[in-house]
Amino acid sequence: MKLLITGGTTFVSKFTAEYFVQAGNDVTVLNRGNREQVSGAKWICCDRMQLGDTLKGQFFDAVLDITAYMQEHIRTLLDTGVAFSDYVLISSSAVYPETNPQPFTEEQKCGYNAVWGDYGIHKLRAEEYLSDRVPAAYILRPPYFYGKYENLYREAFPFDCAVLDRPFYIPENGDMNLQFFHVHDLCRFIEILLKCHPQNHIFNVGNKETVTIKEWVRMCYKAAGKEARFISVDRTIPQRSYFCFHHYEYVLDVSKQNELMPDTVPLMQGLQEEFDWYINHTDSIYYRKPYMTFIDDNLK
Q1: Would you say 11 and 156 are in contact if contact means Cβ atoms under 8 Å apart?
Q2: pLDDT of residue 58
Q3: In this structure, are residues 72 and 126 in contact, taking their beta carbons and an 8 Å threshold?
Q4: What values do phi and psi take at 3, rounded to 5?
Q5: How confident is the model at residue 219 (pLDDT cuts 50, 70, 90)?
Q6: N- to C-terminal Cα distance for the chain?
Q7: Do 137 and 274 sit in the same domain of this protein?
Q8: What range defines the domain where residue 168 resides?
Q9: Number of Cβ atoms within 10 Å of the Cβ of 165
Q10: Rounded distance between C-alpha atoms, residue 300 and residue 296, angstroms
């Protein structure tokens, strides 16, 4: 396939570009050139908000839009006159209001989520605009991504704590649930969409199993060859001061995804692979939030 991938230099978009290059596809990435490019991919150096005629007259079997998070990002790309057979947008589970009944299903009404704020609304407006302009486009709503090239201080935080033999400060008893999706599974599912063209065009994606934050931390420590020791933190302490997830628990119904792709990477396997990569690429995190400093100054 001839593919256009927006981004291609950080986490999800970089992994996606690399995955499809290695699968033998003709991949073009579109980014501003601020970071190293994926080997084997063609490169268009441009800000997607200032595309001009950059893509005019070009054809792609599919556009994989990893980086759009607002309506204008979709509009500027489509207005170039680029031609394509398929369009896949990576949206977000943040489009579901936190007040919706859980698990969230694709049929539920979307709207403002107080936890994610404008981010979720921008993603929703991008979805709506794309659906109006390209009714056959596919829209994917993931929970938390993880895997190689992670650039947020999420898995890296318990990895670092494990390597430093630190106890882990956890909100209350650690029973808040999280749902994850490996970036490799994302790429596999995109391949399935482009091959099978299912009638449904909006999919929740993710592991069907959730995991508590205590279980997740234990697995992160295990990936580092350590055993986690926990210290409970009272709910009165702002969770984001010392922990890498919001105080927000939600579950996506991924049954429609499972009909097409019933298996996903086991979480322990995925975390081990991420740790093995991270330990040699600790500079991949662009902003290390000062969780440890807050813990040392306020919780010890």
Answers
A1: no
A2: 96
A3: no
A4: -120, 140
A5: very high
A6: 55
A7: no
A8: 156-179+209-249+266-299
A9: 10
A10: 6
**Would residue 18 count as lying in a domain?**
yes
Structure tokens at 150: 């992670």
- The whole-angstrom separation of Cα 101 and Cα 84 is 37
Q: How confident is the model at residue 286 (pLDDT cuts 50, 70, 90)?
A: confident
Q: Which two tokens stand for residue 88?
A: 């896949």
Check whether residue 62 and residue 197 sit in a common domain.
Answer: yes
Q: Can you tell me the mean pLDDT for 150-162?
A: 97
Q: Which DSSP category does 5 fall into?
A: E
> Would you say residue 222 lies in a domain?
yes
Closest to 92 measured CA to CA, from 73, 109, 68, 74: 68
Same domain, 213 and 105: no
For 96-192, strand residue ranges (E) read: 138-141, 144-146, 168-171, 177-178, 180-182
Query: pTM of this prediction?
Result: 0.97
In this structure, the answer to whether residues 193 and 245 fall within a common structural domain is no
Contact (Cβ atoms closer than 8 angstroms) between residue 126 and residue 137: no
Sign of the four-CA dihedral 213, 214, 215, 220: positive
Per-residue pLDDT reduced to its tens digit, 3-35: 999 999 999 999 999 999 999 999 999 999 989
